[in-house]
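Record type: monomer structure entry
Structure origin: computed from sequence
Chain ID: A
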Amino acid sequence: MLFLALGAVLRFGWWLSFPGPLLPDELTYSRAIRLVLEGESPYGWGGYLYPPLFALGCAWLWEALGREGLLAVLRVLNLAGAVVTVWCAAVWLPWTWRWRVVAGLGVVVLSPALVQGLTFGNVSLWVSGMLVIGLLLWTRHPVLSGFLLGASVAIKPLAPPAILVLAAHRPWEGQREPTGRRRWLAAGLATAIAAVLTVPLPHFVEWLELGSRASPERSVSFHRFPAIFGFEPHLLIVTGLVMAVALWVARARTWGRLGAMSLALVVTMAATPLVWSHTLVATLPLQAMALGVLGLRWRTRLGSGLDDRGRPRRLPLYEPVLVGLGVAALHLATGANTIYTTPWWLQMLGTAAPALAPGALLAYVVACREGLPEPWRREI
């Protein structure tokens, strides 16, 4: 992780310099913070969609540390979230640690989705780190897992679908029941913390009302599909349908720790109304798992000898194509760009690729689980 952090600082050193101009999403935050400092609602101008705690906490930091101090805290946390997410992905690549570091640095330097999140100053990367770590820790540290997931909701509410999947999924048969019950402890604690940090605060009702009217016209989640054709059903309708399918899938088979995390990330991207390219950075562990499964299957097939024609056995071409296109779609998504002004068929193509890619990668990983060595087969 140290090498990844160093590479990220070298790549984005200019971005951490102070004083400097506010980044695009930092302008949104600063307007809401100024309203709070003036004793008004952070939702007074309509562009701020985050929970009230984020604006209230940032206002307190602004008074205590000044504008530059607040920006330093936000940017360092965002960079840390990006590094944690990339590191949690890289460790599941079946390579030596040197090649994992190279792959992680490549993502930090080259991924358009990650670069956009950092250069726009969006806190999605900070929340992604909390979400991924929380979904990985529930088997051993359910209290810490619940705290991270619940606290992330008060910053940016990406985790609620993941918390539901965590509570509902069916652990693999080999898990001891006390370990299986830890998912309920983590999910219950996450729900309680999220409620405590959002519901009692001022402006909570305003946030709910404003969020329910948010338009998904530039999102790359499932909410975007009806919007392309001019229909905008209530956000809860689409979210409810997605969650109903997700909960059925969570109970239909047993899931290991990595499988449950991957399913939770897929559902989060599908059920969340507003998903931009930098939000998709949270799926990096799933991308790494798909690449890892592809590599293991390739290695196993080559080691299985020659085929009937005396040639080395290779995987069907569709497997690397499927995985490659899925990973590329998640890094090259243009949901926050200008594609929403193009014809409907191009909008559909631009939305379908990143919206369906997480589910396609998860389906590939699950379908190929039986032929994998331990601990991959057990963890998926």
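Annotation 1: The CA atoms of residues 265 and 283 lie 6 Å apart.
Annotation 2: The chain has one domain: 2-379.
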